[in-house]
Amino acid sequence: EDKVVQSPLSLVVHEGDTVTLNCSYEVTNFRSLLWYKQEKKAPTFLFMLTSSGIEKKSGRLSSILDKKELFSILNITATQTGDSAVYLCAVSSGPTGANSKLTFGKGITLSVRP
Amino acid sequence: DTAVSQTPKYLVTQMGNDKSIKCEQNLGHDTMYWYKQDSKKFLKIMFSYNNKELIINETVPNRFSPKSPDKAHLNLHINSLELGDSAVYFCASSESRGPQYFGEGSWLTVV
Hints:
Distance between the termini of chain A: 41 Å
Structural class of chain B: mainly beta
Number of strands of chain A: 11
Helix content of chain A: under 10%
Strand content of chain B: over 45%
Radius of gyration of chain B: 13 Å
Distance between the termini of chain B: 33 Å
Structural class of chain A: mainly beta
Largest sheet of chain B: 7 strands, mixed
Oligomer: heterodimer
Largest interface: A-B, 23 and 28 residues
């Protein structure tokens, strides 16, 4: 069975800190790894990673994938209170794109204190 | 314009009732999904449809029946609701190789 494990499960930091969120996986027919941010409602797409070693960056957030060691990290620099959310890691797997499904980790709850 | 929209957002109903949740996407995507998020906030796939064809059907009670009248719509009908069906149900859509985009969720409470 496909498995995605995130760590730590929760994290409290102060504004301005840098955080690193971890995600490891064991899946068959890996296609991509995705990060989402969930506040009160819909998970919001952050990054999709398909190749090892290529960093994706968006403002203060960045992410990288290691397909050999089967993990990814999400970095947030200069954290702000608006970064407080649950960060979800998901792995897309399946024999074809149309047959792919997302397997989610349990999420990391990040709280940024002023 | 909301890209993936679900109705209703909130639904409180009694055990044994039948209810439906509707989902529409205006992104032109060819694949749509239903996910269930339980009280522990764990998101799990239920179904996916590609161009109106059922592709993924995870281990879900057959009281749950998805229907896709066209590729922009995927509805979820639930028969004989049980207490354990209380959860947030999320609809999502994607292109075959792209990320999935989620609706805002439908909060179902069975009493």
